[in-house]
């Protein structure tokens, strides 16, 4: 009778053991190879950066630059020049200018200022303190066909600071009494005057003689 227990498996022979060891080794190699392949397969998933796209924040709004002051080279505006000093117009600027009153041609022989006036004979006068005479010496020619009188009534002057002054008939009479109220014959010329009494330093941008003939500085 076989002494081995009836349910015990028969002892393995060396050949069977060798086969078992080879199979086990192959199983280990296959498992290792499978793990490596799995690792290579999963590696891109581990190392690949996240594909989630984050919405970038909107760029900050640019701050408005403060307004800059106009440079000195920029032209001045009307507001900038509102308080500017008017351009100087000296009396001699009128020398050589001319105008017409009716048929009379008025030509400025000379324009100047003085504090003392005289007709060269018996009449003379002095300007009040702080005042001076603006003297327009004129050559008046009658270019019409009938005798005509030169009358300075209604003459005004506009100053560089915007004032309107009237002529001084008393001062005009002092220097030209012998010319006033006489008719000027056709073709004849006489010397006459327009005078203003104004604060010292006053300048005129224009003179309207007899309310009709405009005198402006001679350019």
Describe this structure in words.
- The structure is a single chain.
- The chain is of the alpha+beta class and 219 residues long.
- Helices cover 19% and strands 29% of the residues.
- The chain is built from two helices and twelve strands.
- A four-stranded antiparallel β-sheet has the order 1-2-5-10. Strands 8-7-11-12 form a four-stranded antiparallel β-sheet, with no helix packed on it. A two-stranded antiparallel ribbon has the order 3-4.
- Strand 3 (116-118) and strand 4 form a beta hairpin.
- The longest helix has 34 residues, at 14-47.
Summarize the structure.
With 219 residues, this protein is α+β, with helices and mostly antiparallel strands.
Blueprint of the fold:
Blueprint: H1 14-47, E1 98-101, E2 104-114, E3 116-118, E4 124-126, E5 131-142, E6 148-149, E7 156-159, E8 164-166, H2 169-176, E9 183-184, E10 189-199, E11 204-209, E12 213-215
- Give the count of helical stretches: 2
Backbone structural class: alpha+beta
List unreliable stretches of 5+ residues. 1-6, 8-20, 35-55, 69-85
The N- and C-terminal alpha carbons lie at a distance of 159 Å
Task: Give the SSE order as H and E letters.
Answer: HEEEEEEEEHEEEE
């Amino acid at each position: 009778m076989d002494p081995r227990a009836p349910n015990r498996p028969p002892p393995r022979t060396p050949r069977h053991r060798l086969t078992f060891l080879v199979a086990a080794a192959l199983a280990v190699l296959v498992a290792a190879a499978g793990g490596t392949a799995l690792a290579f397969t999963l590696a891109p998933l581990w190392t690949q950066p996240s594909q989630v796209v984050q919405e970038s924040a909107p760029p900050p709004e640019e701050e408005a630059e403060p307004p800059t002051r106009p440079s000195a080279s920029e032209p001045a505006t009307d507001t900038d020049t509102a308080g500017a000093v008017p351009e100087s117009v000296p009396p001699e600027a009128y020398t050589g200018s001319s105008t017409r009153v009716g048929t009379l041609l008025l030509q400025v022989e000379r324009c100047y200022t003085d504090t003392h006036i005289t007709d060269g004979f018996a009449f003379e006068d002095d300007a009040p303190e702080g005042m001076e005479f603006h003297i327009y010496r004129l050559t008046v020619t009658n270019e019409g066909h009938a005798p005509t009188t030169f009358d300075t009534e209604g003459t005004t002057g506009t100053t560089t600071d915007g004032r309107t002054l009237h002529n001084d008939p008393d001062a005009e009479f002092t220097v030209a009494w012998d010319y006033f109220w006489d008719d000027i014959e056709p073709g004849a010329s006489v010397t006459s005057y327009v005078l203003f009494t104004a604060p010292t330093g006053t300048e005129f941008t224009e003179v309207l003689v007899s309310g009709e003939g405009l005198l402006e500085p001679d350019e």
